[in-house]
Amino acid sequence: MTGTVYIVIYSVYHHVYKLALEIQKGLESSGTKTKLFQVQETLSDDILQKIHAPPKPDLPIITVAELAEPDGIIFGIPTRFGMMNAQMKALLDATGKLWTTGALAGKFAGTFFSSASQSGGQETTALTTIPYFVHHGMIYVPFGFANSNLFDTSEVIGGSAYGAGTVANGDGSREVSSKELEIANNQGVNFGKIVNTYVRGKAASS
Question: Of 87, 93, 105, 116, which is the most buried if we count CB atoms within 10 A?
Answer without folding.
Answer: 87
